Amino acid sequence: MTTVLVVDDSKVSRLLSKQYILNRHPDWAIAEAASGEEAIDKLQTVTPDLVLLDLNMPGMGGLAAVEKIQAKCPTAHITLLTANVQDATRDKANALGIGFAEKPITEACIDRIIAVFENE
Amino acid sequence: MQLSLLQGVLKAVRAGIIVFDAEQRIVFWNQWMEQHSQMPAADMQGKSFTDVFPDMVDGRTHVAIRAALENNFASLLSQTLNKAPFPLYANAADVANHVRMQQAVHVMPLEIASLSRHCVVQITDVSMAVSREKKLRELASELESQTLVDGMTGIANRRRFDLHLDDEFRRAKRNTSPLSLIMIDVDYFKDYNDNYGHQHGDQCLVQIAGALSSVLNRSRDLVARYGGEEFTVVLPDTNEDGAMQIAEAMRAEIEGLQIEHAYSGVAKFVTASLGVSTLVPDHMSKTGTLIHAADRALYQAKRSGRNCVVMYSDKKKSE
Amino acid sequence: MFQLSELQHDALVEIFNLGVGRAAAAMSRIVGEEVSMSVPMITFQSRAEVAKALGSAEGRRISAVAQHFEGAFHTEAFLMFPEEKSLEIVRLMVGQSLSLEELSEMEQEAMSEIGNIILNSCMGAFANAAGKELRGSLPTYHAGTGDDILGLSGKEWDGVVLTLKIDFNIERHHIYGYVAFLLDMPALQDLQRYIDDYLARLMG
Q1: Which CATH superfamily is domain A3-118 in?
Q2: Which of B68, B146, B154, B50 is nearest to B111 (CA)?
Q3: What number is the ipTM of this complex?
Q4: Chains A and C touch (3+ CB pairs under 8 A)
Q5: Of the listed B34, B138, B144, B229, which one is catalytic?
Q6: Of A86, A72, A85, A2, which Cα lies nearest the Cα of A36?
Q7: In chain B, positions 223-262, which contact chain C (CB-CB < 8 Å)?
Q8: For the ranges B113-122, B146-155, B257-266, C108-117, which has the lowest average pLDDT?
């Protein structure tokens, strides 16, 4: 069974992501975290196959969390989500070996993320 | 208003006007645009933005046009951030040299009953304003380099000191008179700054500058801020004794300010070390010699325990 | 003072983060450097409270870019920075500046464009979320105290100011500013209704 970890400080965003993922795959398990710190905590009990990570969060931001998550779950597929897509973002994502997707979170956006994950 | 009158107005207006329809096709291209783009209106009618301006696709201008057509938002493209978005030229010579006109662009949505949404792009030639600002920039920079006053303390800056020293050195050479120099360095200033903060540090220097100035009363004497916590004093027509007297008076003035300094390794208040040198310049002498001597004397003052005045001497002092 | 529910608040913050995120991407294309912007906080306050927070009483000067929006709802929108910060921003975006104490005419125009990008992006994000149509005016530049700026609409006015704290990062420079929307009672009610509609559509 596939487990997804959705990390975003916005409750509405988490709700959206969860909803769109479940629309596609009602049988997947969705875990949530409201911050980078909470996400690392969650990894103690959950082993996600796919991680959706908001770039812009207070405290430990999305980027800092990536390396910690990769350390704990090297096989997890990580995707960064941001409204601010620029070359620097692309470069950073590539350097970390992860994908990224542009906000707003729409059904199409989530579909694309899932497609990339499934094609891995 | 009559159509022909309106058309006349748009022809006479001294700004470029392009109107796009909801599909980003050009439906109007005024005479100013024709003149400055070298592209006739007849050729432009019905062409899409992407056809006519392929280099501008997805750039700031294109985004602004889309925002007007889709969201009904107006946009400003400043010349400062978008030098010359459209391929427009002031005159034939500029066309030949590929020098684009400096432009300010406004994009405005047009909502007219019974018509689908359109947008107006207005382009103004701001070359005059740009060259005015360039001139302003040059003047401001020139002014800055000409200043002879240290901004913080209000006394002379290093530039003034260098100029004045040169003048007095030449004069002393001509008159074979003695020229003296004092170099002053505040003791343990870094420790003062680190502990009391930079604002207090600045205030301290301002007070010291004032104290030093109060000792001098001849028009050609000059005290200047030489560096961070360093000051220099030029004393024309002053021999060793005279210079030592003034230096000692300055040392005492600074101590007399009683600026509390709990972190000084030598006193409870702020003090300074002073090095003095005197020279009667001959035709071979250079200002550097005088400065170097005062510097060596200052170094001696520090080594001798600070808060003191030392006169430069050729002979090596035995401790 | 007016308050939104936790979910409404969350939705609005996310909408504005979307807006400033896109604005940051646009600005990074202009300046060729990494630019990031976020909205860490939003509040509803009275005009007097906002002016006070902006240091009006101490005579602190602000640089502001103002735009008027109407249609689905009606608001005066402002992007505001302390005056010396706007000098810093222009310098960073333009690469150099006249280093006078105030922005020159051309620099004011540059600041106006920056305000235009940010305000249009924020309102665009909101309009899209609400599924509503708005009209936006061209930006105008103003400098003065918070009282001067917010009092521009002139009339005696008892509405509310929706203030977004903006965290602006460019080339390792960290600058705080504000986006403010003047909302009268009808506009405030419209705002709430649109957020509710938006949430209903999302959950539906």
Answers
A1: Response regulator (3.40.50.2300)
A2: B68
A3: 0.89
A4: yes
A5: B229
A6: A72
A7: none
A8: B146-155
